[in-house]
What we know:
Elements: E1 5-6, H1 13-23, E2 37-41, H2 56-65, E3 70-72, E4 78-80, E5 83-88, E6 94-99, H3 113-126, E7 137-144, E8 147-152, H4 159-162, H5 173-178, H6 187-190, H7 194-197, E9 207-213, E10 217-222, E11 235-240, H8 244-253, E12 258-259, H9 264-268, E13 276-280, E14 285-290, H10 303-311, H11 315-323, E15 327-328, H12 351-360, E16 367-374, E17 377-378, E18 381-382, H13 383-395, E19 399-406, H14 408-416, E20 422-427, H15 435-441, H16 448-452, H17 465-474, H18 479-496, E21 499-505, E22 507-511
Parallel strand pairs: 2-11, 2-12, 16-19
Antiparallel strand pairs: 1-17, 3-4, 5-6, 6-8, 7-8, 9-10, 10-11, 12-22, 13-22, 14-20, 14-21, 15-21, 17-18
Amino acid sequence: MKRLLLSKSRLAFLTLALSATMLGGPVQQATAQERALVIARDMDVNSLDPARAWCDTCQIYNTSVYEQLVTLDKDNKVQPLIASSWEVNKEQTQLTFKLDPAAKFSDGSPVEAKDVKWSFERLKNIKGNGAFIADPISSIEIPDAQTVIVKLAAPNSEFLNQAAAGFLGIINSDVASENGALADATAVDKDTSENWFLSNSAGSGPFVLASYEPNSELRLKRNENYWRKAPVLPEVIFRQVKDAVAQAQMLQSGSADIAMQIDPETAKTLEGSDVVVEKVPSYNFVYIALSPGAKANTVKLTPEVREAISIAIDRTSLIDFTVGGAGRAIASPIPLGFPGGDGHEIPAYNPDRAKELLAAAGAGDGFTLKSIYPDMNVYGVDFSLMMQKIQQDLAKVGITVELSPVPFANWREAANGDHIPLTAVFFAPDFFGTSQYVDVFGLSEGSVWAKRAGGEVDPSFINAETAKLREQALAAPSVEDAEKLWFEAGEQMAKARIIIPMVSPDLILAHSPSVKGVRYSACCNLPLAEISN
């Protein structure tokens, strides 16, 4: 899971000023009229190979340097990119894409069907985190240089949306193959191109890789051979800045044009300056989770006990406490704005009813819940502060919560080992579609949270219906039919009270007043080609 991470530390003003100066040194001007765009962010880059990259910065990179068959507009509607048109069969098991004959890679060579086939098969065979998108593909046919026929193993009404995801960026297969990249079944073990991708790119996007220094800087430059409208920016520079306050200082000093991880608290320090601060709804959310199968449970986490825990938490005050009100309550683990995500009833804060439920479940005298959670600040939510608030709320109904913040790696080990009675986690979309949420949170046998919640110990919460609803939605004849099925899946996931969403934090877009075209995108995170300065 790719995520935005913000440091909890707050540096002194003098240190911040020095950091901003060091991190925001002079940027080479392209011409008198053009200048580079500098983006301050905590870069979570794990790879610059589209088949291996798995991070938020990677999402921006993959959709700026490489291109996909299609993309999404600001309303999440599919738009042509490398594919100028497409057809989907009635069964939604076959998609035929016609490539734009004008499309070409940065070296001037044409983008052809063989490159699409090679790129999709490589994603599947590299078996990285993003491979799940390519796994449903059963075969790819390329009858000519401009036609790609993708056949799926089962109906998938979301595959067209998935084709906009950065993982499915089209790579120049000739160039990549010459530098150790493989697409066949041996790729997972024998592909030797990852280091090459750290210094080179082979895409058709508006930008190309200029240089990358891990934990320091990522530079992109304009693709002078770009086949569509050339981007305004001659160069984009990502600078590694972990702390939100340091990012804000860079904006104020003019050494950064965009800061991508400003939290609500830090945003207040920008008030009165000329920095533009926009708060927009995001598709990210933070949730708590209960594990009935956890070894450390002191009482059985029955549906009644889980319901009591849910309604004992004051979500309104939690949102005020954690993000200063800059977020939305969310009832189901499907983002607001995604198919099936809207319209679910937010559990009302009712500590008296919670006490009644606990008493009826034989837990009226109180009990202790052990809580292990990642020691993180994600999307502006400090997990320790949030869990302290939840600790206070649950104490009012007789539940004592023992808080144990740990590094993320330790959290993962605990969640997958003896499981955790009460924890806190986060999620951001990998594409615009609801199936990913049913896959992760649907609690079908063998699913991510069926395992993490200890389904092998206590199978009472395992739900076979959500998987069926997922299959039906992906095969639905219309968007409206699919929406109803996704909504029902969302209702079932919410009512289980295994996954209990807390807040969908607003995204803060902070940038200098000269920068135009900044927007949040479900497929591309930050569409660089739309920005000017």
